[in-house]
Amino acid sequence: MSKECSQTITYLYGYVDGELEVETEHRLVNHFSYCPPCKNIEIVERRVRYTIRHHLTEEVPEVFMERLRGRLAIERQRLRHL
Known about the structure:
single chain, 4 helices, mainly alpha
């Protein structure tokens, strides 16, 4: 793997999430245009995120959410006293 590929992979998650500066995003798009292995990694990452977002929509039980809220409230209080 080239140094450019390593850098591309480093920025991949930010790219897929739309969090990169325009210049960095353009560098990645350019790299993907001539590097099929990196382009394939980008495609797989997008597919994974799509699958998670659209097919794993199981609801969290309310009992769990209540316990989580309670623990978060306790943790907030603890942090205030530090």
